[in-house]
Here is the input.
Amino acid sequence: MTKWKRRWAVCGATDSDHPACPYSVSVHKLRDPMIIQHLFPVFALIALGAALKRFGLTNPDFLAVTDRLIYFIFFPILLFWKIGGAEQAFSAEAGRFYLAVIGTVICIYMVSTLYILIFKIPAFQAGTFSQSCYRFNSYVGLAVIYSVLGEPAVARFGVLIGLVIPLINVLSVTTLIWFSAAPGHVGQRLQKTLVSILTNPLVIGCAAGLLYAAWINRFPLFIENTLRLGASVTLPLALLSIGGSLTPQTLKRHFPLAAVGAGFKLVLFPAIGFLILQLAGISGNDVVLGVIFFALPTSTAIYVLSAQLKSDTELASATIVLSTALSFFTLSAVLWLLKAQSLLNSI
Here is the structure.
């Protein structure tokens, strides 16, 4: 009995790595479930959303209403709350980080445009393909970054997407207009783009948060609790909605080009982005945040914009499905590599 107790003490929760413990290796592995802790919950909810749609527990009308609530109400509330209570959103270090990310987006846009021209991608598909290479899913990004880096990083991510979304809209619409088969004056389309940027709820939420942080920077407790409660709805609804919006039927017909777009978004984007972050001298959690941002799956918004400007919506659907499915593995690889580089010591 004494021997058993001594053995239990050696193999206990506080001393599981003791060399005398026969379970030390397995316990150590369980202590480090990086992928299970930070990615599995996100993609489990996406899979649940797809299953609910498949078995008729949700329908297109429900998903459309959910998308509007998230986009116009809950996500802007979350951004305003997190950014409004954050400090030093625009320090010199943060500014260098934002510029490095913006530079990476422009670099990927240029490389994807060269690919379109060199490999003669049909004009009908060019705008959709271009978007798939750099347009990111902010809902997945928020969920992963919140899980990996915690609440302080959410404010940084909010400012980042507030700066990057207008740029990406301009790049996307520019390419869609250039190759578009839709009739209409270019000036009118550019005007619509400008209006869409200025009225984008996420940009408004970010801008309002920055102004509030500059002038007040603290919320009364009852407002803090109200915003926290409203923001808590955002991620579960958003992830369920992403799962419900996936349409794999188009994947077989458009797999080759969808695979190239997913490769640009999930492999080339984070690789070039990491290099640019290193050249810019970015360090610490900003590197982790940046690389996760670069490795996010393609946004479901590419379908909407492709439909509006007469580009290939079937290719958009195929790329969204493939990119979302593969992003579990690429984000897993990204987290593993970051940890191998001692950038995720806290995980």
Q: What stands out?
A: Residues 1-32 have pLDDT under 50 and may be disordered. The CA atoms of residues 121 and 197 lie 28 Å apart. Residues 151-179 form the longest helix (29 residues).
